[in-house]
Amino acid sequence: YRFALHDIDYLAGDTLPSPFRHFWSLGVEEQFYLLWPAVIAATTWVIRRRAAAVTPLPYLIALALVAGSSFALSLSWTETLPSWAFFSLPTRAWELAAGGMIALSTTVWSRLPRIPATLVGWIGSLLIIAACVRFDEHTRYPGAAALLPVAGTVLVIVSGCSAPRFGVGRGLALTPVRAIGRGSYSWYLWHWPVLLLAPRALGHPLGPSGSLGAIMVAGGLAMLTLWLVENPVRFAERLHVSAARSLACGGAATAIAGGTALALLVLVPAPIGR
After folding, report:
1. Which of these, 194, 269, 224, lies nearest to 22 by C-alpha position?
2. With bands split at pLDDT 50, 70 and 90, how would you rate the model's confidence at 10?
3. Which range is least confidently modeled, 13-27, 97-111, 113-127, 157-171?
4. Predicted confidence (pLDDT) at residue 181 exceeds the cutoff of 50
């Protein structure tokens, strides 16, 4: 991640990165979800044209083609266009496609014997930890390096399909871990602005302890966001019972955010220098 930031900051000059730069991952995810239904529809059309039985196999093949071409592009662009490789959908689609392929083949993984399933899950968790510990600003990411955390995640999920008694899922099911999982989306939204703006507000670099404190502050803000904003909307009974109200609420929120952004672009001059 720092490798990509360094590349962009070098091109743009020594400026403060955007506090919202981490939204790139949400954009990539939603772009994939917009395109994936089209892939499903096209695959279904081909199946019906050939009067074939409806099975997950054609969809698995379609996702495998998406994943293979995306990963090949990621390998190429990581060397030639590292910023595009990091931030763009074409080079990241294979990671999302990997999750889709697991979802389409859960019946296969649920039949894994208990011992292999247990080993697979713990190996996957070790791969994720290795990525967290070993990757630094010199890692050319995503490229081949992204295989480590993605493969680790795949193995953990595959292991969970079988639910072995002593699998890594037992640890992930603990109450504190599940609580972190529930707030992880909001925590992701808060962590980068806090880490980025805290040194400016304090007037000095954070250091290891300061960075940990900033992460905890972001976690607290995430919990407030979860309790006061996310859950009240997500579990609102009036929205649950009406698809029309749900769509209207989403459309209104999008229109307000988009309108505010456009108004600010017109009314507020672009920042110059510091």
Report:
1. 194
2. very low
3. 13-27
4. yes
- Alpha-carbon torsion (114, 116, 121, 123), positive or negative: positive
Q: Is the pLDDT of residue 6 over 90?
A: no
Give residue 152's pLDDT: 95
DSSP string, the chain: -HHHHHHHHHHH-S-PPPTTGGGHHHHHHHHHHHHHHHHHHHHHHHHHHTT----SHHHHHHHHHHHHHHHHHHHHHHHH-HHHHHH-STTTHHHHHHHHHHHHTHHHHTTS-HHHHHHHHHHHHHHHHHHHHH--TTS-TTGGGGHHHHHHHHHHHHHHHH--TTSHHHHHTSHHHHHHHHHHHHHHHHHHHHHHHHHHHHTS--HHHHHHHHHHHHHHHHHHHIIIIIHHHHT-HHHHT-HHHHHHHHHHHHHHHHHHHHHHHHHSPPP---
Tokens of 258: 């988009």
Query: What letters, b where the CB count within 10 A reaches 16 and e where it falls short, cover 151-178?
Result: bbbbbbbbbbbbebeebbbeeeeeeeee
- pLDDT confidence of residue 4: 43
| Token output for 100 | 């889709």
Mean pLDDT (the chain) is: 86
pLDDT at 156: 94
* Token pair recorded at residue 158: 């595959």
The residue type found at 125 is: S
**Minimal CA–CA distance to 221: which of 195, 258, 253, 254?**
195
